[in-house]
Amino acid sequence: MARSKYGKRPDHRNKKMFIAVSLTPIMLLFITFTLLPIVMACVLAFSSYDGLRGVLNFNGFDNIRGLLNDELFRMAIWNTFRFVLLAVPLNIAITLLLAMAINKVRNAKLKHLLRTIFFVPVIAPLVGSVLVWQTFFNYDHGLFNMLLEFVGLQPVHWLTETKPAMISVILMVLWADIGYNIVLFMSGLDSIPDMFYEAAKLDGAGRFRRFRHITLPLLSRTTLFVAVMTVLSYFQAFTQFKVLTGGGPSNSTRVLSLQIYDTAFKYFDLGVASTMAMVLFAIMLSITWFQLKIGKSQWEY
Amino acid sequence: MKKTVSALTALVLFAGVAAGCGNNATNQSSTSSANGNEEQVTLKYWMYQTDPFINANKKLIADYEKAHPNVKIDIESFPWDDYVQKIQAAYIGNEAPDIAQVFGSWVPALSKAGLLAEVPNKDKYDAELYPAALGAYELNGKLYGVPGEFNLENGGILVNTKLYKEASDPTTWDQLMATAKKLTVYENDAPKIFGFDFYGDSVTFLFLSLILQQGGKYWTDDNMVDFNTPEAAKALQTVVDIKTKEKIADLSRTTYSYEDTFKGDTAMTFVGPWVNALGKDYQTTDFKYIKMPSFTGTSDAFAAESGWGEIVSESSEHKDVALDFLQFITNEENSRYWNATSSTIPAYKAVAEDPEYLSQNPALKPSLEDLKNGTWIGPIENRDFFFKQIYDNYEKAVKVGAPVDLVLKDAQQAINDMLTKERSK
């Protein structure tokens, strides 16, 4: 076999060349639009930046100190946690139950149809969906108040009173999002071998015990993935809040992502906005690490 | 579900990156003409994306191009929500358009950063234009743009004539409240049809005008905000009382109050005269625009932001041509055409006070007569922040009953912190 002067086979060199050529475009994109902005955001987080004058002044921990005294920032953190803590468990519970129900359907066509129906909101343009839901929530002419009045209940100020506003956003988010997790849970359920259920049935285990001792444990890897991805997604939820409530009423739905956007692009304070983004990043990193730590499973089948 | 962890951090820096992706047509805008004598010049012109503005500007640009065959002006227009970010990103990235038609409150940030070309003949504009319209375009005794519009959010009330029925136009503040109460329709102890309403930025404009009409002021001598005055307290209390005590409206709606007036859900709305042009969008003629009564009966003073106007980039390769075009599009005759086509209030005193112009635009009568009472809102630095602070604190007073003096103190503190920060840049 002929060898090159570097002592390597030509096909090995070609392979490396192929890998380099294939990866270069995506790496360039990654560096330009992901890595570089993250590095720049880290720098900006400890600076005051005046883009129009092109002046970047390192100001140490001034931005963080300012945020500690910023009532609106504290409110945004609280609202973000409130949203995530309410919406994620609801999402997981609803999607798991629906996935199990759809999985029980024996007719393959009907099963696919149901999965498709639940997935449609995921692929619908989010802004359009939010606008439609905004009309549903209208106090005078909205669908929900018409239904409430039909059953003899008082109409609700869905988007203009502080308490129902967050619930309204969560309802919309759940509708728009559940299809994605249903598909994940259904594939997870499909991968559990039937023999475990058959053995449990022979041992006299009822539905709940089969769910508790077979489905839940063997679905834990899927559940962990769904939980991690949903938490990350919901911490960054933006469009739903921006379009549906704009953070109101009385800032009761002002979440961190919205506050970062307003600070950066309405108040043009990129330094403080980057500090907020770093705080959000640190929160998400910590929670994801914690989730992975407690959700680690050692089994296989 | 598909977003990545880095999306938000990337978002923060989007303005900088976007600037790098901007159009670089300006740098290539100059070529030699066929005959070699006169330089061919292509100018980039940015503007707000709305048909009345586009139609007016296109005609004036065509006129200029006809008179200057070597000049070509390319228009790019942007929706309101994107425009201010686009302008800022363009200036940050040194890709600014040669000329831009911008909203007055965006100008001070650009002029302070030395990014705008000085407009000559300041004395002429000072004499011919309303000071309230010019305010934001001036800096340290120099002029950095020329407004085409007197941005008016005050002085008038949009009335739904079907709901108004036999009610006569109120001429005093007390009559306004009494008429509004009469027109309010209640359902379950809450107003179903609002008698008199206002929304968003109108809260700030109403609040500031009530301070000024009492003879008060809200700026200190060193240009910091001062809401710790009896006039400010009385003004905000009055605005809050409309929702809490008079109960002629509440904060339960998410729609613009002028929309509700056109649709018949609100009888009267405090809003600028630009609303007159929108009736056709709601397919209604059941409305009229009346004068807003004075709060004190003695003064009609109000605060106004500078409206839409023209600026030229200091770094434009064809600054002289761009400034020449600016002076062309903002001369009295062309401004008159632009105002008439775009349904905007004239910044030129001579146009606004011209009986012929008034006879052609009768719906603007209450507004045109009121322009002399306007003063510039002042160096608010960050417009959105200023307005949000006042609105948030007003909302706190209405919704949770926070004392007016306390919310005014909070608003003043937050705004002054912002002013200090902005001015230290």
UniProtKB/TrEMBL annotation, chain A:
TM annotation in the entry: 21-46, 81-101, 113-136, 165-186, 218-237, 270-292
One of the record's GO cellular component terms: plasma membrane
Similarity section: Belongs to the binding-protein-dependent transport system permease family.
Keywords linked to the UniProt accession: Cell membrane, Membrane, Transmembrane, Transmembrane helix, Transport
Domain ABC transmembrane type-1: 77-291
CDD domains (alphabetical): TM_PBP2 (cd06261)
PANTHER family to which the protein is assigned, alphabetical: ABC TRANSPORTER PERMEASE PROTEIN, INNER MEMBRANE ABC TRANSPORTER PERMEASE PROTEIN YCJO
Protein name: Sugar ABC transporter permease
Any one GO BP annotation for this protein: transmembrane transport
UniProtKB/TrEMBL annotation, chain B:
Pfam families attached to this UniProt entry: SBP_bac_8
BP terms from Gene Ontology: maltodextrin transmembrane transport; maltose transport
Signal peptide per UniProt: 1-20
PROSITE patterns the UniProt entry points to: PROKAR_LIPOPROTEIN
GO cellular component, one term: ATP-binding cassette (ABC) transporter complex, substrate-binding subunit-containing
GO molecular function: maltose binding
Keywords: Signal, Transport
Top-rank taxon, per record: Bacteria
InterPro entries given in the database record: SBP
Statement: the UniProt record of this protein carries the keyword Coiled coil: no
UniProt similarity note: Belongs to the bacterial solute-binding protein 1 family.
Name of the protein in question: ABC transporter substrate-binding protein
Species, as recorded: Paenibacillus montanisoli
